[in-house]
Amino acid sequence: MKLMSCSAAGAAVLLLLHCCQIASILGQKSDCALTVVEGGGADEEAELTVDEGDFEVVQPTEDWQTLKAGQAVPAGSHVRLNLQTGQREVRLGEEQLKYWTQEHRETEEIRSTISPDELKRAMKKMEDLSPDTVTSRYRPLEELKRDFAQLDLLVETDVQIMKRLLDQFNSSNSTTEQRLSILLELEYLVHQVDNAQNLCSMGGLQLIVDSLNSTDFRFQESSAFVLGSAVSSNPQVQVKAVESGALQMLLTVLATAQPLRVQKKVLFAVASLLRNFPYAQRHFLSHGGLQVLSELFRADGGGVLRTRIVTMLYDMISEKELISQGGLDLVLDASHEERVRQYSKVSLQGELLDKGWCNLVPQLLESTEHDYREKALRALLAMAPMCLDHYRSDRSLLGSLLSLRDQYQEMVQSEMIVGEENSYFAEIVELINALQVKMMR
Ligand SMILES: *[C@@H]1O[C@H](CO)[C@@H](O)[C@H](O)[C@H]1NC(C)=O
Ligand SMILES: *[C@@H]1O[C@H](CO)[C@@H](O)[C@H](O)[C@H]1NC(C)=O
Ligand SMILES: *[C@@H]1O[C@H](CO)[C@@H](O)[C@H](O)[C@H]1NC(C)=O
């Protein structure tokens, strides 16, 4: 079989294989072969003979290990692209893992794995399969996949992986630990827009929402994580999630006493679900979302949740403000009007006032963390139009602002002595000043 030359002739087959995997990891739908074929000259288009010595078959383990160029993996392995290092990594696929970690561990080889010899034989067979089909440099992905499927060497696509994971998650045979680890795998996969949408079409979203309702807090935590990642910057999935009752479920979990780690993940999911989605924001308000958050705020001594909540409120206020000013829309056309109309139905300001947020947010200034205080100041400024009367009569807020300004001005002074400019502390002083100006008017 003829294949295009890649960086290393012997590795061509493997590069093609991995290419499909990487292409699916990056969510590209483009012709896979385009990304594989490197180098130009026709003379480089050599006939690939599979030399057994050129392939090194990596035996995956339970831990991720980095794949080098020219290394092959057995079918069923889980290959991923580590986005931080740009390296491909492999470990046992779920099936293999299950088999491996159960009773067969010591007694047998992994059944679902092709042995190195089998793999090499299969590689060799590739030559006989379709000697004349490769006439173009740019073979359609489907064609490549067919070839690999025939060889039983197809690295699973994300769709297949997700299907398998969901089946296993839904199976009464899976243990709690297996199901929890499946959720983490899914969380990794749904960062991609396509994968998150496939999760919905495969019925997985409902499984996740149901699992949020689990009495085991580990399921609540991990399901909220999957949900939050799936809806992040993914409008279609945001819509599906609200339709499937995810928001009510998240609020229910938030409203009942939970470990901090669950609450953090659930807040993350709520914030992601509401972002740039006025319909969900309205829903959130009408289902008592601000009430739930205020109870959470009052109960949080450490300030970790308080800061996240205040940041979320700040984001919602400024998002609405930005839209009403025409901010994100370059052309003020019909869709802009529609957006403005939708946001105008989000009665955020009135609700914030009603639920006592004008008096709650100042409490975050009592934190000792600079970052928390900064978030509080920004939110206080954003809320100033509706909260001024409250601010003016809040003695402890006035006291906090005075003492914080002294404290930060002092820090700015000492920084100037060591020659730093435009410091973070100067920014905080500016926020305090801006707030005081508003309050004096
Ligand atoms: C659970 O395992 C048993 C035996 O291993 C099998 O017969 C059954 O079909 C499995 N059920 C599911 C839902 O996978
Ligand atoms: C989960 O299993 C149930 C029955 O066992 C089935 O009705 C449902 O379609 C399954 N859901 C998914 C997403 O596989
Ligand atoms: C959540 O679980 C409880 C029982 O644990 C059940 O009564 C309730 O109907 C479930 N809620 C949803 C929305 O599935």
Task: Characterize the structure shown.
- With 441 residues, this protein is mainly alpha-helical.
- The chain has 22 helices and five strands.
- Strand 4 and strand 5 form a beta hairpin.
- The N terminus is likely disordered.
- The structure holds 2-acetamido-2-deoxy-beta-D-glucopyranose (NAG) (3 copies).
For the residues shown, what is the average pLDDT? 77
Number of strands: 5
Query: SSE order in H/E notation?
Result: HHEEEEEHHHHHHHHHHHHHHHHHHHH
Distance between the termini: 81 Å
Regions with pLDDT < 50 over 5+ consecutive residues? 1-53, 99-113, 127-137
What is the spatial order of strands in the main beta sheet? 2-5-4
Heteromolecules bound: 2-acetamido-2-deoxy-beta-D-glucopyranose
Shape: elongated
Q: Strand fraction band?
A: under 5%
Helix fraction bin: 55-70%
What's the quaternary structure here?
single chain
Rg value: 28 Å
H/I helix tally: 22
| Major sheet attributes | 3 strands, antiparallel
- Structural class category: mainly alpha
